[in-house]
């Protein structure tokens, strides 16, 4: 096996300081000052409602400032006027222009945020497990039998924010909308009791914003025999895009690489679930070095990300990205459909178009890049993949299947929806062939009512 140099361990990479900018700093971002005043005001309005955070690496190395506003990474990180519905935009803009007091502005902002479906797919009540006394176990989601999602409290932010983020509600400081755990013991106790769980997914925010010592507190105990049932540890992150120096020259980067190596050597399958939207994210020296460093530990990198208008709604972008990923040793894993929350009106792509982009991109890559599944909707009943548009007995339909379901028995069962060229999410689809309901609907409703009733009683 080839031994890559461990730069982080060697100390062979310089410690680049992390410099971050939020809404308050819009006027301090140098390249923005060359843009028209009206455009900068629009950014202020939108970032009053939706979270904004960017860092110097993204500004300097990922964005092409000669291609504004079309540059995909600019669209990925900087607020755009179209991200708010016109009535919401006008309301907040008028308040800012009038110099409204803080309380009035905050009240309006809260109302707009709550109109943006902050918790898609019933996340708050449907997926959170409870202890024996019925108390909600904050920070843990257990939606599918074998997989537990964990939201460590120190990992509930990101090195920069994606404008389309479906977890945006967590970043706007509204405690009621946060789903995070502060205790490693909450996770460990839960996993000890649930031996059916084989996969643990650390997510956020971005768990890689955590100091290595915090990650260690969560991960190292999992090497004890009582956690032998946990075979796979996945870490969802966009740090390979937004801050690859996390794996290179940061203070505790060497310790992080060592930790990953130790988990792998102890027999765990460690998978870094890297969020990518565009090949440009792979195209810097630091990004490639960070990928090499992670791969040198034996951990895998799997790539996933949503299909987003203004950023990557183009088969060539996906084909090039998948090819580059394979070349760098990353496994293409998922193409997601943009979720039904936040600024989705600006970013969504009709399901039919999403499938066309997926299909055309697949046709342009070799077998090793065809491991990406999708386009997939992470809806409340499960992950539903659009397999295609076809015609059966003269009726034009969407062919669909569950990749993952609240009931494992639903997985891989094909089902059909009436063709609808405007549909952008599962709830826009109706059963085909005159059926009243999809095959899973009654069972899903029963599961849903059970969970919601438990949530109300607690
Ligand atoms: S990296 Fe993930 S969690 Fe963070 S802003 Fe982007 S989509 Fe959201």
TrEMBL record:
It comes from the Bacteria. InterPro entries: Aldolase_TIM, Lys_aminomutase/Glu_NH3_mut, rSAM, rSAM_sf. Its cofactor is [4Fe-4S] cluster; pyridoxal 5'-phosphate. Keywords: 4Fe-4S, Iron, Iron-sulfur, Metal-binding, Pyridoxal phosphate, S-adenosyl-L-methionine. Coiled coil: none annotated. GO terms for molecular function: 4 iron, 4 sulfur cluster binding; catalytic activity; metal ion binding. Transmembrane segments: none annotated. The keyword Flavoprotein does not apply. Belongs to the radical SAM superfamily. KamA family. This is Lysine 2,3-aminomutase. It comes from Nitrogeniibacter mangrovi. The lineage of its organism: Bacteria, Pseudomonadati, Pseudomonadota, Betaproteobacteria, Rhodocyclales.
